[in-house]
Amino acid sequence: MNSTSARYDFFLDSMLLAMRKIRAYTAEFKSFSQFNQDELVKDAVIRNFEIMGESVKHIPFSFQRKHKQLPWNHILALRNFVVHEFFDVDDEVLWEIIQTDLTRNISDLEEIMGRR
Description:
This protein has helices at 9-26, 32-36, 39-56, 61-66, 72-84, 91-100, 102-112. The chain has 116 residues and is mostly helical.
């Protein structure tokens, strides 16, 4: 990690840990149906999406603009939605994000942090 990011490395680490937790919590599920039946896991996943978005709020826009491979705005928007519109969260959308975006997001963040 370069010296520029050293001031907010805690938030980058928090994002990465939250992403890895989501992946670990959902690794055993082979379908949306399985995921959708486990309320405890869904709650844990939502909490970690919140942590990811909250972390984004503490990472300067200048850093985010330099590292456009990560969807900073989408991560923050998802956090805002699950926090403020919790009664209307579409679990299928969360599952789709986990299945299609999470692994790439982890790789991109690891690269940004120099951990690859």
